[in-house]
Specification:
Layout lengths: L1 E6 L3 E3 L4 E5 L9 E4 L11 E3 L6 E9 L8 E8 L3 E3 L2 E8 L3 E8 L1 H4 L7 H12 L2 E9 L3 H15 L3 E5 L10 H6 L4 E2 L1 H12 L12 E4 L2 E6 L3 H11 L3 H8 L10
Parallel strand pairs: 3-4, 10-11, 10-12, 12-15
Antiparallel strand pairs: 1-4, 1-9, 2-8, 3-7, 5-6, 5-9, 6-7, 13-14, 14-15
Length: 262
């Protein structure tokens, strides 16, 4: 897959610097690269590699509304993977993806107000990185608001193109624990096997695990998993399903192989 992009003038980039990749030119964004023709559908975690200059990784996707003579378009936020200079003119970028894009979402009223440090979200990233090939991992911290979670899950899965989305917190019986209900409001295919495996793993540690209402399922081409709110429970429940995640994602993308093989 290839993306042809225009650079108005030689563009020096530092490692980690952000640059806008636009489907339609818009002077509000700088520095920027503009599509020369139709772009393939890009998603977070994809790498754009030019013949010369620094490679870029897509780390965000958003829609840009039209205004006056500027047409509506799509904004891809890219990160330079190394320092270098992109040459002026039209450049073909090879589009590849090596590894999975992970998004974790911590549900916490106190955490979202800065009143509590978030340890569970980083535990998701660490646990997944130890078992899965990750191209990108991003975290979000929001209050226990079901509408906000539903909107975020849809954005992460459908617009951004994350492969795996793991939420932590809000799976119990407290009045503000609404993560499973919000998740069920957007998932398209439920994964009861994931839910059972996580429950059994937790029950082996504590009988209180039977109070968890964590769910799992798919949204678009992403797998969404709820886990409890403690770092210990994050590691225990994810360990129970980690081996099935790569195969599940392959099937979501149309892999025709027999699930019974191997």
């Amino acid at each position: 897959m290839e993306a042809s992009l225009l650079v108005a003038a030689p563009l020096p980039l530092a490692a980690g610097q952000r640059v806008a990749v636009l489907t339609a030119d818009n002077a509000l964004f700088t520095p920027r690269l503009v599509a020369a023709g139709r772009l393939p559908r890009l998603a977070v975690g994809m790498t754009l590699t030019p013949p010369a200059g620094p490679a870029l990784m897509i780390v965000g996707v958003a829609s840009v509304p039209g205004q006056d003579e500027i047409p509506a378009g799509r904004l891809y936020t890219a990160k330079a993977l190394e320092a270098g200079v992109l040459p002026a003119g039209q450049t073909p970028f090879a589009v590849t993806k090596k590894g999975l894009a992970l998004a974790w979402v911590t549900l916490s009223d106190k955490g979202s107000q800065g009143l509590r440090a978030d340890a569970a979200g980083p535990a998701i990233a660490e646990t997944c990185a130890a078992s899965l090939p990750l191209a990108l991992a991003q975290g979000h911290l929001i209050p226990d608001e079901p509408a906000e979670l539903r909107a975020l899950l849809l954005d992460l899965a459908v617009t951004q193109g994350f492969d795996l989305i793991v939420t932590t917190g809000g799976t119990g019986l407290s009045p503000r624990d609404t993560t499973p209900e919000a998740t069920l409001g957007v998932i398209e295919k439920r994964l009861p096997g994931f839910e059972t495996a996580m429950l059994l793993a937790s029950l082996a540690k504590t009988p209180h695990a039977m109070l968890s209402r964590a769910t799992a399922g798919t949204v678009g081409r992403a797998i969404v998993i709820n886990v409890p709110g403690s770092p210990k429970a994050v590691r225990e429940t994810l360990a129970a399903v980690m081996a099935a995640i790569p195969h599940g994602l392959d099937k979501l993308r149309g892999d025709p192989s027999d699930c019974g093989q191997g």
